């Protein structure tokens, strides 16, 4: 299941599928690592046995030849167990690292899927936590599982060895280990229950922090910084409380495992000591028995380690599965895909009866939103839309960008429903440029031509967007490197470069959302003029409240409560006090 999800991230995936997929993808390396770790543990178990043999056959007899021979055997054992561990660790860590990378690619692939939906209801920081922390926890099973199998091998070898020394010691190991493992599984359950909420709240706190940092300037400007700090403190306290609960559960679990192991090993040592006093075993065999009891501390603790990792991995796998199984935000392309290329038509965008009701809130019949939106955008002068409620504008843009489906109605391009094409094809034909679009690391020129057809000369688009002024102020002009997200530029400079990038793409239909909010009035007027000239003969929709842009639009549609309130030129609509209040606010 998880393998198919790598090709097509959409589909039902469970936490078990994530765990199985992570282990099966690297089962070859895991098997090799398990075999080598088992060899290492067998060699470790032989050490106290060889020491006992040396005492009985060389030290007690005073035979120097036997002593040299058995010491050589002991040295060879150390060489083999060391070699086995090094090779096994290399295989296990390789599987761990690649499984981690594979899970991150799966999560990223789902989040970047053209039909969207994977990010729904989650903050960016939370998604980062799932892609990083949860993926790592699941991938660690590729190391923990071979170590757990090696621990079983170690207990088996020790039990067989003790059976040869004394029947009661061997039976004690064989009969006592299963109840011990059952007890470990019993006390690990609270840790498993608390691992999920711990990761959830920690990711939520990280997401809140990331959002606040990215919007710190805006929050400070509107005086909302104290409220934002209180919000983060509350989220951080919740995360801390969840982490402390999970840590207490882990501490209690590890303490219980240590206590149980100690009591178990004390019983083994006691039984061995009594056997030596009775003369049923030799001094060397007693040394071997005590040495094996001490050796068993490691394997028995490993059972606890593997159980803890398994519990945490299950909780993390469930969170990854929730992202991978998230329903798509928009439907798939229609079965009868039209033969026409959406880029080849005149580019007439039509909305008929489109409703923007929030599904969570239901229909707003009192405001008449059931009437829907009728709108036509064709080649020629830009069309404009002014929304009294910014949420209506955001929802409409989401529908046009194929990031969400309208509550009702349909959107067509040249008479063909927009959802007839795959989402990525529709987005290329109807390009929605957000006002807060990010820039990429690279030169200014590379940013502008990022989505343009091959061989495009960006200078015309840069002139129309007044981005040529930005290039003129930079040390190397258009070849100047821009930092990630354009942090090396001012807000107005970033906005003009993003607008130039949208214009250079030369989409049949271009939808611009407030493209001049960060520029001065003089530059805004120049952009409005350049935009109208650059898009002459193409379809353009401006979703804005800028008077300078609205004055250049052919027809302006005024949207109130999700329905068309009025339509006309900017000058005509200025007679409406509600419209005037929105565009002059």
From TrEMBL:
Occurrences of domain ABC transporter (ranges): 354-585
Protein name in the entry: ABC transporter ATP-binding protein
Domain ABC transmembrane type-1 span(s) in chain numbering: 32-312
Topology in the lipid bilayer: Multi-pass membrane protein
Localization annotation: Cell membrane
Keyword ATP-binding: yes
The organism's place on the tree of life at top rank: Bacteria
Keywords: ATP-binding, Membrane, Nucleotide-binding, Transmembrane, Transmembrane helix
Taxonomic source organism: Pseudonocardia kongjuensis
PROSITE patterns the UniProt entry points to: ABC_TM1F, ABC_TRANSPORTER_1, ABC_TRANSPORTER_2
Transmembrane residue ranges: 30-55, 67-85, 144-163, 169-188, 253-277, 283-306
One GO MF term: ATP binding
Primary location recorded for the protein, binned into one broad class: membrane
Xref: InterPro entries: ABC1_TM_dom (IPR011527), ABC1_TM_sf (IPR036640), ABC_transporter-like_ATP-bd (IPR003439), ABC_transporter-like_CS (IPR017871), P-loop_NTPase (IPR027417), Type_1_exporter (IPR039421)
Keyword Signal among record annotations: no
């Amino acid at each position: 299941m998880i393998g198919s999800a790598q090709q097509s991230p959409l589909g039902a995936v469970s936490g078990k599928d994530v765990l199985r997929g992570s282990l099966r993808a690297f089962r070859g390396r895991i098997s090799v690592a398990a075999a080598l770790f088992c060899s290492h543990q067998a060699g470790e178990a032989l050490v106290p046995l060889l020491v006992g043999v040396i005492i009985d056959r060389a030290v007690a007899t005073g035979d120097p030849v036997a002593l040299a021979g058995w010491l050589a055997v002991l040295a060879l054992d150390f060489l083999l167990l060391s070699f086995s561990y090094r090779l096994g660790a290399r295989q296990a860590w390789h599987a761990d690292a690649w499984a981690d990378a594979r899970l991150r690619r799966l999560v990223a692939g789902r989040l970047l899927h053209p039909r969207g939906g994977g990010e729904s209801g989650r903050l960016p920081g939370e998604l980062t936590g799932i892609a990083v922390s949860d993926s790592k926890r699941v991938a660690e099973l590729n190391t923990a599982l071979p170590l757990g199998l090696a621990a079983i091998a170690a207990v088996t070898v020790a039990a067989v060895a003790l059976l040869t020394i004394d029947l009661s010691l061997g039976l004690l190991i064989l009969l006592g280990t299963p109840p011990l493992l059952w007890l470990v599984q019993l006390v690990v359950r609270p840790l498993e229950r608390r691992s999920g909420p711990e990761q959830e709240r920690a990711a939520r706190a990280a997401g809140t922090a990331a959002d606040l940092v990215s919007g710190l300037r805006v929050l400070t400007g509107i005086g909302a910084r104290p409220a934002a700090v209180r919000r983060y403190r509350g989220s951080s306290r919740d995360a801390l409380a969840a982490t402390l609960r999970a840590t207490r559960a882990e501490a209690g679990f590890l303490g219980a495992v240590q206590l149980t192991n100690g009591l178990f090993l004390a019983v083994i040592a006691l039984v061995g000591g009594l056997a030596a006093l009775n003369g049923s075993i030799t001094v060397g065999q007693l040394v071997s028995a005590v040495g094996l009891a001490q050796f068993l501390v490691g394997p028995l603790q490993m059972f606890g380690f593997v159980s803890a990792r398994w519990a945490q991995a299950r909780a993390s796998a469930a969170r990854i599965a929730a992202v991978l199984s998230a329903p798509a935000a928009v439907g798939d392309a229609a079965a009868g895909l039209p033969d026409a290329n959406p880029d080849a038509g005149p580019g007439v965008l039509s909305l008929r009866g489109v409703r923007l009701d929030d599904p969570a809130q239901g229909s707003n019949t009192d405001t008449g939103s059931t009437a829907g939106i009728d709108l036509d955008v064709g080649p020629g002068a830009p069309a404009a839309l002014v929304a009294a409620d910014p949420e209506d504008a955001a929802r409409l843009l989401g529908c046009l960008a194929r990031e969400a489906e309208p509550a009702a109605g349909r959107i067509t391009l040249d008479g063909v429903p927009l959802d007839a094409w795959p989402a990525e094809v529709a987005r290329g034909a109807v390009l929605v440029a957000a006002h807060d679009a990010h820039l990429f690391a690279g030169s200014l020129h590379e940013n502008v031509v990022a989505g343009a057809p091959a061989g495009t000369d960006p200078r015309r688009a840069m002139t129309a967007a007044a981005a040529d002024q930005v290039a003129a102020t930079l040390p190397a002009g258009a070849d100047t490197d821009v930092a990630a997200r354009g942090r090396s530029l001012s807000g107005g400079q970033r906005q003009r470069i993003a607008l130039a990038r949208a214009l250079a793409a030369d989409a049949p239909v271009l939808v611009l959302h407030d493209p001049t909010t960060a520029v001065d009035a003089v530059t805004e007027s120049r952009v409005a003029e350049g935009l109208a000239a650059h898009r002459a003969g193409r379809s353009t929709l401006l979703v804005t409240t800028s008077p300078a842009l609205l004055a250049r639009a052919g027809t302006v549609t005024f949207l109130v409560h999700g329905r068309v309130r009025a339509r006309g030129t900017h000058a005509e609509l200025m007679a409406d006090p509600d419209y005037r209040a929105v565009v002059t606010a």
